[in-house]
Write a structure and sequence with these properties.
By secondary structure, this protein is mainly alpha-helical. The protein is built from 14 helices and no strands. Helices cover about 70% and strands about 0% of the residues. Helix 1 packs antiparallel against helix 14, helix 11 runs antiparallel to helix 14 and helix 13 runs antiparallel to helix 14.
Length: about 350
């Protein structure tokens, strides 16, 4: 197992390199870069809107005419575009090898500091949403499998389908309307992760305030993954319950609880464990963006989106690096979870 983990960790390096290379090439071809936006602001053309085409914002186009060539060169040097693309790429990779992501073009801070500042918000949303989703969905899925075809199975499936069809951001808006001042109920805050007087609170008060702010955004994230995981767990158990080894175990006189949790659980949970990496990645890097915007949470998802819109390349690549690294490590964690559920699985014996 140790050798397998080491091989997977070593594969992370070329994977990160390829992803950075592909995105670097794509970004070089995208119009409306930081130089073009700076020129557009100087010329008063739409404030450098990212959606403007290259014919409007390119530094050699009409937007740059009338500007001092020395000023244009200064702008290019300021953003590092006075060097050829291959030199910029090599400089970026050598810095990334030292975990130096450079400084933001527009935020006036190092990318590392920005990521460390925003990471707790995204981690809070992702970890709690994933934890609650699994703690609720797995027992519910098992119960639905045991009582398959009953009234409980029917009405719970109806609620699950409704939850699955309801987008997380729309459910978040519904929660705001119902419980955050949209009606007579004003139980939960809708801005930030903590209150303004957080530093003045006691330890118990800080914990209560933190979880109080998390109720609505985490509830919004749980709704979609909750439905998927519940049905996955139910179907996995139904599939295993029909196997011959279950019939044999029951014929030997084992209790239903022993059959379900001593035999079926271990095999059925393999499919559920396989979905952990994808669930974590979805919550961390996809589902959290709109939730962070709706609830005014300053996390990685929101920062990455704003950086992409403003063409803040150091922040874009730094966030991409972190997202990719986390994604690869989470997938490795998913493989390790296989061995915890079923010790018979040994990745070290796999042929490569």
């Amino acid at each position: 197992m140790t050798a397998y983990i080491l091989r997977r960790l070593l594969l992370i390096l070329p994977t990160l390199l390829i992803i950075l290379l592909v995105n670097f090439v794509i970004i070089q071809a995208a119009p409306g870069g930081p130089v073009e936006q700076a020129v557009a602001r100087l010329q008063g053309i739409g404030g450098g809107a990212p959606g403007a085409g290259s014919d409007t914002l390119h530094s050699d186009s009409r937007a740059s005419r009338g500007l001092d060539p020395k000023l244009l060169e200064t702008i290019r040097r300021q953003y590092g575009f006075d060097k050829p693309a291959h030199e910029r790429l090599w400089l970026m990779l050598t810095r990334y090898a030292q975990l130096d992501f450079g400084s933001s073009f527009f935020r006036g801070a190092k990318v590392t500091d920005l990521i460390l500042d925003k990471l707790p918000v995204t981690l809070s949303l992702g970890l709690w949403a994933t934890l609650i989703t699994y703690l609720v969905s797995i027992p519910l899925g098992i119960r639905k499998a045991i009582r398959h075809g009953s009234a409980f199975d029917a009405w719970s499936s109806a609620l699950i389908v409704i939850g699955y069809a309801l987008p997380a951001f729309l459910f978040g808006l519904l929660l705001i309307v119902l419980f955050a001042g949209g009606t007579s109920l004003n139980w939960f805050p809708v801005r930030g992760l903590v209150s303004e007087n957080f530093a003045e609170l006691s330890l118990a008060g800080k914990l209560a305030d933190y979880f109080w702010h998390l109720v609505l955004p985490v509830g919004s994230l749980v709704i979609g993954g909750f439905a998927t995981l519940t049905l996955l767990t139910k179907n996995a158990f139904l599939n295993e319950i029909t196997r011959q080894y279950v019939v044999t175990a029951r014929a030997k006189g084992l209790s239903e609880r022993r059959v379900l949790y001593g035999h079926v659980f271990r095999n059925a949970m393999l499919l559920v464990v396989a979905g952990i990496p994808q669930a974590l990645i979805t919550v961390f890097f996809a589902g959290s963006l709109l939730i962070e915007v709706i609830f005014s949470l300053d996390g990685l998802g929101r920062m990455s989106y704003e950086a992409a819109v403003s063409r803040d390349y150091p922040v874009v690549f730094g966030s991409l690096f972190i997202f990719t690294l986390f994604g690869l490590l989470i997938r490795l964690l998913g493989d390790l979870c296989y061995t915890l559920v079923d010790p018979r699985i040994d990745f070290a014996t796999r042929q490569h």
